[in-house]
Amino acid sequence: DAKTTQPNSMESNEEEPVHLPCNHSTISGTDYIHWYRQLPSQGPEYVIHGLTSNVNNRMASLAIAEDRKSSTLILHRATLRDAAVYYCILRETSGSRLTFGEGTQLTVNP
Amino acid sequence: DAGITQSPRYKITETGRQVTLMCHQTWSHSYMFWYRQDLGHGLRLIYYSAAADITDKGEVPDGYVVSRSKTENFPLTLESATRSQTSVYFCAQSAGGAYNEQFFGPGTRLTVL
Q: CA-to-CA distance for A54 and B101, rounded, in angstroms?
């Protein structure tokens, strides 16, 4: 599986936007970009995914660079509940597995 | 509701004992997965299953056995537990494919003394 690189940690203030970066320079043309997050003492939960175009859902937005070598997860207004570890994961078109890295620990300050 | 339950939620055992962790899904999805998460690290895939009677190894399968006789159940057995298997174990289910999300259970915290 292609590898992703994320910062170990980031901080944000409540009600401000948060941009979580992910580099995936070895991404192949058929890899989907997935984001999951893990709240304290819980299992991971799906956030969003995309292939080439930017994507929006009720939780977040995903901005994908034109060359697909990087992407950014955008939380439009961070809340305290958004404090979690965020994982950026590449998935092959034919694959069902997820390969987790270490993720980014997001701290949200009140 | 992720449609997936795990039992027990907490388990303490001793080195050398056999332990079985249970996973049950209610959505009849094809794929099921077992991950382990050591303190402060990301999840690692142990085994996964694409359908009943079809299982395959993940990144860290040594010391574990799985079976899937029914679509809804995917038990994970540690045949002879070791201290290095102390971890939190997550089960997940998915409809399969690169675009379908995985739904995770609440986890089982296993301590091997």
A: 18
- For residue A61, the cross-strand partners are A56, A74
pLDDT digits (tens, 9 = 90+) for A86-109: 999 988 766 677 888 889 999 999
Interface test with B, best of A97, A99, A102, A104 (most B CBs within 10 A): A97
Q: Reply yes or no on whether the pLDDT at A46 is more than 70.
A: yes
Nearest CA in chain B to A31: B98
Q: Supply the DSSP string of B53-71, one letter for each residue.
A: TEEEE-S--TTEEE--SST
| One-letter amino acid of B42 | G
Residues of A in contact with B51 (CB under 8 A): none
DSSP A8-45: SEEEEETTS-EEEEEE-TT--TTPEEEEEEE-TTS--E
Q: Token digits for A81?
A: 């509940």
Q: What's A84's DSSP letter? A: E
Quote the mean pLDDT of chain B.
94
Strand order in the sheet with A45-50: A9-13, A104-109, A84-91, A32-38, A45-50
Tell me the pLDDT tens digit for each residue of A9-33: 999 999 999 999 999 999 988 889 9
Nearest CB to B107; choose among A43, A97, A101 = A43
Query: Does any CB of chain B come closer than 8 Å to the CB of residue A24?
Result: no
* pLDDT of res. B95: 86
B99 contacts A94? CB cut-off 8 A: no
